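Quick start: what a row looks like.
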Amino acid sequence: MDIALHARTEGIRRMITGSLVAVVTPMTDDGALDLDAYRALIDWHVESGTAAIVAVGTTGESPTVDVDEHVELIRVAVEQCAGRIPVVAGTGANSTGEAIHLTRAAAEAGAAMTLQVAPYYNRPTQEGLYRHYRAIAEEGGLPVILYNVPGRTVADIADDTVMRLAELPGVVGLKDATGDVGRGAALLGRLPEDFAVYSGNDDAALALMAVGAHGVISVTANVAPAEMARMCAAMLAGDLAEANALNRRLMPLHRDLFVEANPIPVKWALARMGRCGEAIRLPLTAPSDAAREVITAALRAAGVAP
């Protein structure tokens, strides 16, 4: 393993706090990557107070971009951020070797961390999950944020496994998308103080931060970046009244951007706002007429689009 890359994971616990956006991947009508729109979205996020760009996650259509596109999206995100905010690279896979390959490419592109989804479909044991993440932390060249989203992957990273992984210097955080705030609160009580925990569900972010989480990896921030940044900042500063007021305003988005499978609604919402095109790759399709009405109403209720 390259010594320079290895040094980036040794003894490092970097803490990013606030609203991290799980950014969409804009595409042209013929399905190609729209890098101009992507760059413009990143600039908007920097200007709006977003804490980090999470590139090529589920919201960025990671399952349908090829390896070259995947690496290019991370490279462009790093280049466009230009050190203003960090890039967290979504480089997870259900093949440990593939995850390491993508993570090393992200490290070479200049990403700050990697977000690693639990291996999906092949249903590893807890020991298998531990060894998978340990290998990525040791060989990938980037600090690892675990991503537990059992509703999508079936695999659930048990709390005891998270605790084992938190002992590794290269594992620095967790995106908790279980939606179980009680479980998250109990885990936060066990984890080291320098281990970052992010809500993976916008509708649970306020509650999870109230019990110690450090922020949210957000879908809502795609369409309301300044509002999500302010909500997180208020909550982290202990201003519950302000955070709660902002969260109530954003709740229609937290709920209705999932009226169909993510990222179908949020990408269409951004297209409606003129931020990118609405093209999306199969097997995902454009939202139904009924879903469009729900999304439009949520954008209006949150005050982010007419």
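That is the whole record. Strands lie at 18-22, 52-55, 87-90, 113-117, 144-148, 171-176, 196-199, 215-218. The longest strand covers residues 171-176.
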